[in-house]
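Appendix C. Worked example: 3-dehydroquinate dehydratase
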Amino acid sequence: MPRHRLLLDSRSPSIIVPLTGRDLPELESQTDALLTADAEYRCTPEVGAPLNGASPDAGSSAGRSTDRLVDVVEWRVDLFEPFTAGAGGDPARAVKALERLSTLLPEVPILATFRTRSEGGGAEISPASYLAVVEALSATGAAAAVDVEHLHPLAAQAIAAAHRHRVPVVASTHDFAATPPAEEIVARLAAMEDAGADVAKIAVTPRSAADVVALLSATEERHRVARIPLITMSMGALGAVTRLGGGPFGSSATFATVGAASAPGQLPADGVRRALDLLSSGSAPGGEPVYS
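Step 2, the predicted output written as structure tokens:
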């Protein structure tokens, strides 16, 4: 059972920030930078609760759509040195690193993601090793959710492994070459839900403004009937608008940076938070747990 629940709601999209460190010291440094950025955010006129669990300053107010700069941290396990070095990686070291991150970020949900090279990731491991990593990370209770690649040959087994530990699954698919037709995007999102995912995520690459419109149109169409949250985006500079304005179309989260980016077009978290605050018009944060 995860220690944190992942709450997603397109009316108040969550900001997900990647951690991309190659080893534990680098991950700790990135976490420290994230906590510093959060503290600086709280020092502006309306402040909220820090990610490390400390009490906010006296006189703080709650006028924002959320009191945090970052809602979720995504740990990119595939960029961790035990896996980039080859030989199948070391799930035990990944478990220890995840436990450490959970200690450093006691108030923030962690999405654990192993992105294979075929989906734009930093390492390649055998299907059996991929399944073992998902199982090991799910068993810790330190991950609020795990990513499972929708097209992975053992996706069904990975989803089942996570669910055995009552850990929600973010099913994902990426297209770094183009944007599929809107009807295909809708079909992929539906297929992820049908496969048992608790969140369906798709990222595509636009070649024109029409591609961006196709992604947003498909998101809105699927959102009308979906029973799970959606996370959708167009990557790169052309698609940046979808990272800021996806909420009204049904996207429940956006990826932003405090330091290193993990995909093309990710914007700085502080700017994204300001934009989301303006677009939300002060609507209350919240959402339903994606798995309970």
